Amino acid sequence: MHVLGLMGSARRDGNTNDLLDVVLNAAHEKGADVEKIVLADHRVEHIENCQVCKQRGACVHADDDFDRLMAKVYAADVLIYGSPVYWYTVSGRLKVFLDRWSCELYLKSNDYFCEKMKPKAGGIVTVQEESTYERAASCIEALEKTIKYAPGSTYLGYVLGPGGKRGTALKHEPTLLAARELGRKAAAFRPAP
User: Which of 38, 111, 114, 122 could hold 147 in an S-S bridge, CB 3.0 to 4.6 Å?
Assistant: First the structure.
């Protein structure tokens, strides 16, 4: 079982990264092979014009890191999306990466993309300074829809932790318990035959 964490925060030492590490460590302890992509360490350009890319038959950003990162996404069995809540949704870094998934639909096909994503499971790690679910709801719902886009994919759930000051999430025991449980679910996932 290969579990891939997609860390969308710009803060490599922040609460999102801390909780994503808790999830990945729990999965590893249960026997999963784990890996983390810190999107801030890679260059992924914004979508420019899908029609131009489609006419060319290739993305205008062929020299960025997107294709290499997508190869890792496709190779994983489980994706854990990590993002702080920024203005009711995911971070800009994660959003740009997810937007580029449209390139796979345009340049290859929806069937190709769904076939690559179908046997996967996904979970969500997010943090926010506010204390109510309502502020994070659209972020969580957007990522849940991303996970469920491919028919037959499995949604493992989410962890919503406290954000703000560095280390806050690691001091919140209910969040840590939920993160460890998500990691155990990720390690236990088996795609349907």
Answer: 122
Give the rounded percent of residues in the chain with a pLDDT score beyond 70: 100
Domains within the chain, CATH numbers bracketed:
2-42+69-89+111-188 (3.40.50.360)
pTM above 0.85, yes or no: yes
The stretches in the chain having pLDDT less than 70 are: none
